[in-house]
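Incident review: delayed structure delivery

Summary: a single-chain prediction request sat in the queue longer than the usual turnaround. Root cause was a stuck worker, restarted by the on-call engineer. No data loss occurred. The affected request and its eventual output are reproduced below so the record is complete for anyone auditing the incident later.

Affected input:
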Amino acid sequence: MVRVYLSMSQDVVTDRLRLRRMELADAAAVRGLWLERDPRVPPRRRIDADGRPTIMEFNELLATQLAESDRTGLSTWVIERRSAPGFIGYCGLRVGGMNPDEPELVFEVARAWQGRGYATESARAILDAARATGRSKVWASVWDWNARSFRVLAKLGFTDSGQRDLNPDHGCTVWMTCDLDGQGRGSTRS
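Output delivered after worker restart:
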């Protein structure tokens, strides 16, 4: 049986943030996040010594992601502060390692903006948007060494699913779940 969901909002607004759908013009900013990534992240998810992926390759990557968004109804949004617009990160839902019925939450905030609750605030708004579409469960994958992301997910009510993907060179991916039907909403603090 194919489930049909309501569309996700094009823009999401919180007390401090405006989340807008990602566009091809955001390729350079997303690439900037990859430049900041922890060296423990697998090389295929970082900028390599030759400067790849390039901006052009990021444009292709984003075009593929936007086409997937159109196909699945799931989106990634750019995080901007309402008081001073400009890219500070992204947050959204994708099929990822899961499926459109139980999508994966993704988020990343530039180092200069970390520690201010922006990841938690934006992810909470995205979970609310997912709930409004009729979805009842969301997944998140996080490296076992990524303490900041674990704290964000705990505040949102995610729990450990017990599922692991081991990478001998980069650590273990821990799969977390969040029940959107009112259970496990987590702390209301950012």
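Verification: The radius of gyration is 16 Å.
Action items: add queue-age alerting; document worker restart procedure.
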